[in-house]
Amino acid sequence: MQLIEQAIQRGAKNLSEFDSKQVLAAYGIPVTQEYAVDSIESALEKAEIIGYPVALKASGENVRHKSESDWVILDLKSADQLRRAYHDLMSRTHNAFDQVLVQQMVRGNRELMAGLKRDPQFGPCVVFGLGGVLTEILEDIAIRVAPLERFDAMDMMTDIRGHKILDEFRGKPPVDREALADILLALGRIGLAHSNIFEIDINPIKISQGKPMAVDALIVFGTSDA
């Protein structure tokens, strides 16, 4: 894939969130509607295309931990709010990033994660579990070696301790498990097709009206020996 090849040729250690999602989308993984902008005028224009509310994020190959750095501003409901948030973000970050993302806000109180880890012995392994802050706190994950069959992906969903979050939840519909399985299968295909991808982290995957969508993502380069 040209985007990956170009990044590796220039010595990048990882892709930006925007470019990471471009790779995921090329493999059929649903991602947020978003635009990379470099001015407040462009941000306002793209927000109108997406429709309010929107999120604003710092993005770039040197940006990995946006939330910890306070480089994410959510739920902007108007052009005035977006304008203030854009200037606020620029003052916080002191231009320590390549681009700003104007991103669709995805509603949903269920958060999952999925990803890829390249193991020295087994090669690319697909990971699935609870997302958001629960990922590191609960460490509730399931792992399978790629390539995956659909029954493997379905099995991973029942393997996690918190699997009931996929069922009907607080009046919300159950998660579309077939769509979630498609994401896990796609991650396995990416890992097999691109040996220079060491890690993929999609966190969170938000569930909106039962459908999973990648809200944040990072693709890291390297090898199993790195």
Secondary structure elements and pairings:
Layout: H1 2-9, H2 17-26, E1 34-37, H3 40-50, E2 54-59, E3 72-76, H4 79-93, E4 99-104, E5 111-119, E6 123-130, H5 134-138, E7 141-145, H6 150-159, H7 177-193, E8 197-208, E9 211-214, E10 217-221
Antiparallel strand pairs: 1-4, 2-3, 2-4, 5-6, 5-8, 6-7, 8-9, 8-10
> In the CATH hierarchy, what is the superfamily of the largest domain?
ATP-grasp fold, B domain
Query: Per CATH, which architecture of the largest domain?
Result: 2-Layer Sandwich
Compute the number of strand runs.
Answer: 10
CATH topology of the largest domain: D-amino Acid Aminotransferase, Chain A, domain 1
CATH class bucket of the largest domain = Alpha Beta
Q: Give helix and strand order, one letter per element, not per position.
A: HHEHEEHEEEHEHHEEE
DSSP helix count? 7
Helix percent reads 25-40%
Estimate the strand proportion.
25-35%
Uncertain residue ranges: none
| Mean pLDDT across residues | 92
Query: What overall form do the CA principal axes indicate?
Result: globular
User: Largest sheet, described in full?
Assistant: 6 strands, antiparallel
Q: Strand pairing plus helix content: what structural class?
A: alpha+beta
Total domain modules: 2
End-to-end distance: 22 Å
Task: Please tell me how large the radius of gyration is.
Answer: 18 Å
